Amino acid sequence: MKKLAIGLTLAATAMAMSACSTLKGAAIGGAGGAGVAAATGGSVERGAAVGDTAGAVVGTVAD
User: Fold this and answer.
1) pTM as predicted
2) pLDDT value at position 22?
3) What does pLDDT average to over the chain?
4) ∠ CA(45), CA(30), CA(50), 5° rounding?
């Protein structure tokens, strides 16, 4: 749970940095992946990692 709280805090901080789409996408993806994993009973760490990677790619492409 502590890792999830740290991850969500970092995600909120990264989202505040609107100038960098890659970090913003990674933060949103990481938070979303962690949330989905927690809701479905999966590994929160793995969900955050997968979401983070996907979000970074989308953020980079969208930029």
Assistant:
1) 0.59
2) 75
3) 76
4) 65
